[in-house]
C-alpha cells in the first residue's frame, strides 16, 4: 500500500495564499484600510488647511513633506493594530490551531500576515503621497528617492506588525492592543517631525531626539527634498533590523505556544 503525500508548495506561494485571505477579510470589514489610508489622508488634509500657515511662520517652511512622512508611518502602524484585533479571536476559536496542523509550512501563516501588512502599507503610503503631491509636495530627488521614501514605512510597519502580533498572541482581550495604538501614534507625533527639536521642553528633548521615529521622519524628509541624510537613514535601518530580529524570534515562539494552548 502506497501513501500519497500531499502536494507541497513553496513557502512564498503559501504565504501569498494566507495574505490573500487577510486582504479578503479587510475588503469585507474595512476597518484596517480605513485606519491605514483614510484616517492619515484626512489628517494630512486637515493639517494643510489649518496648520501649514502657522508652521510656515514658525519654521519658514510648510513642512508638507514631513507631515506626509508622519501620516504614512502613523497610518501604517495604526492599521497594524486594527489588523491584530482578530488574532485573539482566531486563537480562541481554534482557527490558528487548524492552520498549524494543515499540510503547509508552519511559518506561512505568519509570513502571509506580514506580506499582507507590507502590501497594505505600500498602497496606503502611495495614496498618502499622491494626496501630498496634489497639495504641493514634490520629490526633488527623483524616482529613486520616491521609491526609498515609500519603502521606509513598509519596512517599519512590517516590523511593528510583528511586535503587535507578539502582544496579540499573549493577551486575552483587545484592551492591550488599543493601548498599542496610542503608543504608535504618540511615537510618531512626539518626534522631531512635529516641530524643531529646540521648541520642545529641555527635559524631553533627549527622548524626542533619540526615539526611532525622529530619525525615520528626518530621513524621509531629506529624501523628499533631494538629499540623503546618512546618519538618520542608518539609524532608521539599525532600529528596523534590531527590532525585527528580536520581534521575529519572539513571534515564532509566541505563535507556537498560542496554537498549542489554544
Question: Which key terms come to mind for this protein?
Answer:
262 residues; mainly alpha; 12 helices; 77% helix
Walkthrough of the structure:
With 262 residues, the chain is an all-alpha fold. It has one domain. 77% of the residues lie in helices and 0% in strands. The chain contains 12 helices and no strands. It has helices spanning 11-28, 31-50, 52-59, 64-84, 87-92, 95-101, 108-134, 142-170, 175-189, 205-210, 212-224, 230-261. Helix 4 (64-84) packs across helix 11 (212-224), helix 6 (95-101) packs across helix 12 and helix 8 (142-170) packs antiparallel against helix 11 (212-224). The radius of gyration is 20 Å and the shape is elongated. It starts with 10 loop residues before the first helix and ends with a helix. The model has no long low-confidence stretch (mean pLDDT 85).
* Tally of separate domains: 1
Secondary structure category: mainly alpha
Number of helices: 12
Low-confidence spans: none
Secondary-structure element string: HHHHHHHHHHHH
**Percent strand:** under 5%
Helical percent range? over 70%
**Mass-distribution shape:** elongated
The separation of the N and C termini measures 36 Å
**Number of extended strands:** 0
Which helices and strands, and how do they pair?
Layout: H1 11-28, H2 31-50, H3 52-59, H4 64-84, H5 87-92, H6 95-101, H7 108-134, H8 142-170, H9 175-189, H10 205-210, H11 212-224, H12 230-261
Amino acid at each position: 500500500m502506497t501513501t500519497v503525500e500531499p502536494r507541497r508548495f513553496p513557502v512564498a506561494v503559501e504565504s501569498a495564499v494566507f495574505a490573500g485571505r487577510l486582504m479578503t477579510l479587510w475588503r469585507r470589514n474595512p476597518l484596517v484600510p480605513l485606519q491605514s489610508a483614510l484616517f492619515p489622508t484626512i489628517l494630512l488634509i486637515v493639517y494643510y488647511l489649518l496648520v501649514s500657515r502657522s508652521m510656515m511662520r514658525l519654521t519658514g517652511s510648510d513642512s508638507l513633506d514631513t507631515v506626509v512622512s508622519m501620516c504614512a508611518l502613523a497610518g501604517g502602524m495604526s492599521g497594524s493594530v486594527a489588523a491584530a484585533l482578530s488574532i485573539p479571536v482566531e486563537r480562541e476559536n481554534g482557527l490558528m490551531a487548524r492552520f498549524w496542523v494543515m499540510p503547509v509550512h508552519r511559518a506561512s501563516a505568519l509570513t502571509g500576515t506580514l506580506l499582507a501588512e507590507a502590501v497594505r502599507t505600500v498602497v496606503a503610503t502611495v495614496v498618502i503621497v499622491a494626496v501630498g503631491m496634489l497639495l504641493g509636495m514634490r520629490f526633488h530627488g527623483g524616482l529613486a528617492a520616491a521609491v526609498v521614501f515609500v519603502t521606509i514605512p513598509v519596512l517599519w510597519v512590517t516590523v511593528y506588525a510583528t511586535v503587535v502580533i507578539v502582544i496579540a498572541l499573549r493577551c486575552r482581550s483587545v484592551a492591550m492592543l488599543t493601548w498599542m495604538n496610542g503608543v504608535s501614534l504618540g511615537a510618531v507625533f512626539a518626534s522631531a517631525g512635529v516641530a524643531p527639536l529646540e521648541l520642545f521642553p529641555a527635559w524631553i528633548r533627549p527622548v524626542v531626539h533619540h526615539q526611532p521615529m525622529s530619525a525615520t521622519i528626518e530621513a524621509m524628509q531629506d529624501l523628499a527634498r533631494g538629499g540623503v541624510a546618512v546618519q538618520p537613514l542608518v539609524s532608521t535601518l539599525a532600529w528596523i533590523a534590531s527590532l525585527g530580529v528580536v520581534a521575529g524570534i519572539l513571534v515564532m515562539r509566541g505563535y507556537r505556544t498560542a496554537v498549542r494552548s489554544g
